[in-house]
Amino acid sequence: MSPNPRQLEMLEQVQARGSVSVEELAALFGVTLQTVRRDVRLLSDAGLLARFHGGVRVPSSTTENLAYRQRQLLNEAAKQRIARAVAKAVPEGCSLIINIGTTTEAIARELLHHKGLRVITNNLNVAAILSDNTDCEVIVTGGVVRSRDRGIVGEATVDFIRQFKADIGLIGISGIEADGSLRDFDYREVKVAQTIIEHSREVWLAADYSKFNRPAMVELARLDQVDLLYTDAPPPSPFPALMSEAGVTCFVAD
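^ that's the sequence the OP posted. Answer follows.
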């Protein structure tokens, strides 16, 4: 499905709150319960939300991520704000390693007018976007291409990235848990992201508000391995304290 503006905002509200009752959504949007139930049914059938008696929540599987097309739609405006903030901070003439994710793809679109970039990526979507920038050299890793999102993973990918030391490692993730761990769903993708962290002089994490307290199965890293975190809203407790302790600078995109 292609959610309408109200349905997209409904998704953002549920992401921000974790779960919301049907009555709360009706009052929030000034529509009837019947309208909310219809929206919820459509969003649930598309796999974007999970229904329970009297309310709705975000799907919370720790073993399987949402489908790529669904992730593209979720928090799209927030990802665009994050992307603009990150692109503004990326200096011209630097080297980056960019991993798999819909947020990193949004960042790639905002880098189209940067000059003198050298970008290494295991994301064919990022490579395709940045190939339109004639002043950007794009290097694509070897490895196995996942058909669902055009991400490249595997031992060949890890070995390829180990040849480099980039100025900035730009990563997206699926979840940040309250113990300070950064998490994702695919252990092969995690191995690549861990290598990106090891071979970057600075690590920048781009994660919208919905990623806080979102569970996922595989630990990718810890907050103290990140230098900068870009998000779209002030992180909830206990994350400000965790980031302060870990020495992470947090930027909230306007």
